[in-house]
Amino acid sequence: MTTIARRAALGGIAALPLAAPALAQGWPSRPIRIIVPFAAGGTTDLLARATADRLTESLGQPVVVENRGGAGGTLAGEAFARSEPDGHTLLVSTASLVCINEHLYSNLSFAPATDFEPVAMLAQQPNVLVVNTNALPVRDLPTLVAHIRAHPGQVSYASAGVGSQLHLTGEMFRAAAGLDMVHVPYRGSGPAQVDVIAGRVPMMFDGLGTALPHIRGGRVTCLGVCSAEENRALPGVPPVADTVPGVISVNWTGLFARAGTPREIVQRLDTETRRALQSPAIATLFDDRAFDPLPTPRAELPAFLASERVRWGEVVRVSGTTIG
After folding, report:
1. Model's pTM, two decimal places?
2. How far, in Å, are 118, 228, 318 from residue 246 at the CA level?
3. What is the CATH number of the domain that holds 271?
4. Of 280, 272, 257, the residue nearest 57 (C-alpha)
5. Are 124 and 295 in contact (CB under 8 A)?
6. Can you state the angle between helices 189-198 and 208-216, rounded to 10 degrees?
7. Short-list 96, 92, 34, CA closest to 250
8. Is the pLDDT assigned to residue 14 strictly greater than 70?
9. Is the distance from CB of 249 to CB of 205 less than 8 angstroms?
10. What is the band of 26 on the pLDDT scale with cuts at 50, 70, 90?
């Protein structure tokens, strides 16, 4: 190698540490895209859009939401994993894509544990157990469990689809209580709700935010919340775990950057996102949709996600569910 070439190479190496700070200083230099692995209109989408509006104000660039539903969120995961780690493409997702799918799919082209960088938790909601009491004459959880035990293989439950968090919550409940139940999968929570309300399927586990209007309207009865404690939106409704220990299923939503995104960008995203969550608009959304904050420090997020992967992996294993 000539002296000139050697100096050029050394100069290039010396310049490398400056690349990330320079990129961070100019960020964002164009509109930011937030990928959401669900259709528009759901609770995750609403939370992503409210956060995007606040980030647009604080970052000085448009922050737009792109919905990429399908294949249990894997289409969104693939698109996100192919994006550049420059802070201009982000992901808002739940445990389904980030912690569960790796246990369901044998051929994922990405690894959330290493490809996704956690930025901040946005909110959480417990899943809930709802029953059509016209189709299933029970009024409390112990009576429901006793009824299912007395009628093995005759009671069915609906879900948002095979491998969805709602399906796996049902499997968690079934296994923990030692019950023989029939799973009826649908293409999303909405169609499942329709058939539960109509009494074609007597019960389901649903997200609190989507179930709440039907509970308040008397179309279904909530027998339990899948959190460790009662929920403020449903006073007097006990935790499922009081009757069936171990049934904890809380649907959290987090913001993620691509792994390799400069640390300064991730730190600013964390700061601006936490500020956004304090805004009156998002406080109103939290009240309307029964979201609760999940103020986990960013340094603790990798350990939290690792524990969630282990926990849901065990649920998948016990259920025997596989996809692809």
Report:
1. 0.89
2. 27, 9, 14
3. 3.40.190.150
4. 272
5. no
6. 30
7. 96
8. no
9. yes
10. confident
